[in-house]
Amino acid sequence: xxxxxxxxxxxxxxxxxxxxxxxxxxxxxxxxxxxxxxxxxxxxxxxxxxxxxxxxxxxxxxxxxxxxxxxx
Length: 72
Hints:
It is globular, with a radius of gyration of 13 Å. Helices cover 36% and strands 21% of the residues. By secondary structure, the protein is of the alpha+beta class. A two-stranded antiparallel ribbon has the order 1-2. The termini are far apart.
């Protein structure tokens, strides 16, 4: 599998998981019922590298980095 494709796939997947946790609807939200690739959700998504092959993705109503978000 192409490494770039794999990277994009997991960034999209983790953004969708973050959004479903944010809404509290979990998998009942349905992965196909919303997109994280445009601005239609009015939510900010951020990716934080943890290890070379691990990325943490979170979403927030405000445009901020993780350190600022934790200190709010």
